Write a sequence for this structure.
């Protein structure tokens, strides 16, 4: 009796099953290559987006020192056209050859204002910036 030919798998090693690709419809989303496995992996420090620090605003010219008191405790500053400051505002003097100084606005009478010199020194013609 001769029957049909058949291949009987050997029992030495198990039969290999094809591994479905992650994008195939047969793929299990929880399998090591599936979509959901990528969601559960923690982000490394290079993958996390760090917030960008705020951009620094450029200094804008508020006015120019016109005169100083004899004792050097306050300055009279001429405002630039279209600029306005409030009493108590702290401003910066950028001297042409020295260290920056700090002013605090005391009294305003447009187009001039009086400011106390908090630290540093000022000279007539120095730029006042904010």
């Amino acid at each position: 009796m001769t029957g049909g030919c058949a291949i009987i798998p050997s029992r030495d090693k198990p039969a290999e099953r094809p591994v479905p690709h992650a994008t195939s419809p047969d793929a299990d989303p929880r399998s090591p290559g599936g979509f959901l496995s990528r969601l559960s992996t923690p982000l490394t420090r290079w993958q996390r987006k760090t917030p960008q620090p705020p951009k620094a605003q450029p200094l804008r010219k508020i006015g120019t020192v016109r005169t100083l008191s004899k004792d050097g405790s306050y300055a009279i500053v001429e405002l630039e056209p279209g600029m306005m400051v409030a009493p108590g505002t702290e401003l910066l003097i950028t001297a042409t050859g020295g260290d920056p100084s700090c002013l605090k606005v005391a009294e305003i009478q447009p187009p001039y204002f009086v400011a106390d010199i908090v630290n540093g020194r000022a000279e007539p013609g120095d730029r006042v910036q904010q």
